[in-house]
Amino acid sequence: MVFLNGEFTPKDQACISVMDRGFLFGDGVYEVIPVYAGKIFRLSDHLVRLQNSLDSIQISNPYTPEKYQNIFDQLLEQSPNSNQAIYLQITRGADTVRKHSFNELTPTVFIELNPLIPKTKTELENGYHAITQPDFRWERCDIKATSLLANIIYSQQAKQSQVEEVILHRDQMMTEGATSNVFTVKGNTLFTHPTGQHILSGITRDLVIESARYCGLIIKEVATKIDDIFSANEVWISSSTREVMPITNVDSKLINNGKIGQHWSQVYDHYQTIKNA
Ligand code: PDD
């Protein structure tokens, strides 16, 4: 079952209008919210970011936090105590004509669950590969918009290059991954791009910073040169579906001789403690 505009419906029977602006323009926003053992993780943070995304594109939030919670609970009843990723999408809704500018419409709300299978620590300890690319996205990467053409192009490049992620840089400065935030460690210091319009303010990013601080790392939210990635001791990516993942090879060059860093291991463990609390 999925939730669409007030109804719980089998997924293959859920339909939207061809005039929906999400379909015509990608005019909508979304959230991906992890659920561990049936418990929704950091829901209020995701709902705050959702509100910010909606405000940025002038869509009125159709539901209260209680209503979202209620819908999620009903969907989660189908698979109790499991790990899931809630996908929540809100588009501006359907108009009668295709026009770029918009009228006030009834937003379309679509919510579904997807199984979430986090990688085990042993799997993660193998390390992952990434490639770098210039960031040709727009200047409002802080909006979690469903119009993801650039991210799709990068993700397909990652797939074709058989790597986990594409790490992006704008004016030679590292921004984020195509579908994740990026961190580098040098000595005892963790670097990550500051929030603002050039990255998505990841909920997992906040958690990684929280865990790293707990583990004694100094946190510097500053943009660093993309070339500095090759001399980093550790490189990590983070997202709600991947948690915190070590990257040991960038553009076919080894990071830290291809070895997993000790800071990643500690931060990963602390992250698991927060998640299971
Ligand atoms: N994406 N940056 C980008 C461009 C992302 O697409 C994502 C996550 C993140 C990490 O955000 P968070 O920690 O809140 O998941 C950063 C999701 C998972 C997706 O598009 O499916």
What would the principal axes of the Cα set say about the shape? globular
Sheet-strand content, in percent, reads 25-35%
Bound molecules: N-(5'-phosphopyridoxyl)-D-alanine
- Radius of gyration (CA) equals 19 Å
Estimate the mean pLDDT confidence. Answer: 98
Q: Do you know the CATH topology of the largest domain?
A: D-amino Acid Aminotransferase, Chain A, domain 2
What is the strand tally?
Answer: 15
Helical proportion, percent range: 25-40%
Query: Could you name the CATH class of the largest domain?
Result: Alpha Beta
Order of helices and strands: EEHEEHHEEHEHEEEEHEEEEH
State the separation between the terminal residues, measured CA to CA.
29 Å
Structural class: alpha+beta
- The figure for the number of domains is 2
Structure description:
This protein has helices at residues 21-25, 43-56, 65-76, 121-124, 149-160, 203-214, 262-276; strands at 2-4, 7-9, 28-36, 39-40, 84-91, 108-115, 128-134, 165-170, 173-177, 181-186, 189-192, 218-220, 234-239, 243-250, 253-254. The chain folds into two domains: 2-115, Aminotransferase class 4, branched-chain amino acid transferase, N-terminal domain (D-amino Acid Aminotransferase, Chain A, domain 1, 2-Layer Sandwich); 121-275, D-amino Acid Aminotransferase, Chain A, domain 2. The protein contains seven helices and 15 strands. Helix 6 (203-214) crosses helix 7. 27% of the residues lie in helices and 29% in strands. The protein has 277 residues and is of the alpha+beta class. The model has no long low-confidence stretch (mean pLDDT 98). It is globular, with a radius of gyration of 19 Å.
